[in-house]
Each structure stands twice: as structure tokens, then as C-alpha cells.
Amino acid sequence: MVCPTCKKEFDPNDSDSLPFCSERCRLVDLNRWFGEGHGLPSIPDPDADETPEML
Ligand SMILES: [Zn+2]
Predict the structure, then answer these.
(1) Which sequence spans correspond to the domains of the chain?
(2) % the chain with pLDDT above 70
């Protein structure tokens, strides 16, 4: 089967972290999900908020 994290084919019999190929890939996936909630907040650029028109 294919590991959702590293997209590599592996033998499910060799892994005890299914559906991932390894514990490492399982944690990477976990962190990715956490990262989406608490990752970089999209702070609006203060410069972009200014109207360039000075007329
Ligand atoms: Zn993997």
C-alpha cells in the first residue's frame, strides 16, 4: 500500500503504524493536522491595507 505521508509504497506487514509506513510518517501527518489549526496565522499586511491613492 502507499503511505499517505511520504507517498512511498510499503508492505503493510512491515508497518505497525498503519496506514503509514512508519511511526515517523504517522507523527508527520499528525503534526500537519495540528499545524493547520495553530500554524502561521494569516496576518493581513498593514501596507496592503493602505489605499495607495493619495489624490
Ligand atoms: Zn511514509
Answers:
(1) 1-36
(2) 64
User: Grid coordinates standing for 25?
Assistant: 510518517
Q: How far apart are CA 36 and CA 12, in angstroms?
A: 28
Instruction: Report the 10 Å Cβ neighbour count for 51.
Output: 5
- For residue 31, the CA-to-ligand 1 centroid distance in Å is 14
Q: How close is the Cα of 33 to the center of ligand 1, in Å?
A: 16
Within a 13 Å sphere around the CA of 11, how many CA atoms are in the beta-carbon half? 2
Using the structure block, give the residue that is written with the C-alpha cell 500554524: 39
**What parts of the chain have a pLDDT lower than 70?**
36-52, 54-55
The model's pTM: 0.59
